[in-house]
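Thread: "does anyone have the structure for this chain?"

Original post by V.I.:
We have the sequence but no experimental structure in hand. Need at least a predicted one for the grant figures.
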Amino acid sequence: EDTLREVQNELRHKVNDFAEENNKLSGTVTRLEGELVPLKESETKLKAIAEQNGSSVDKLKKLVKENSKTLKEMKENLEADVMATMMDVVFKADRSEDGMFDEREIQGLI
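Reply from O.Q.:
Generated one for you, tokens below.
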């Protein structure tokens, strides 16, 4: 009978230990559920930021492409301006306006 009573007491202790652990786990679950709401709000905000940044990245890519095109056009215009300026200098150096350069006109070009 002592042995049966000992087993019964041991089982009661185990049940009490399990009940205590269950209470701890229930408290942890409640705490985690409370933390879940702010985490979901943060997730929603982060998703919105990610979507906005994705759009911003696309816009930035488009702007970089447009800027590259503009720079190319500016370079072409600058080259044309330099060519026009050089031609103007050459034509002004031909003081006799005969299309031929004498020694004095060549020195003016140099």
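V.I.: this helps a lot. The first helix runs from residue 2 to 93.
O.Q.: and The chain has a mean pLDDT of 85.
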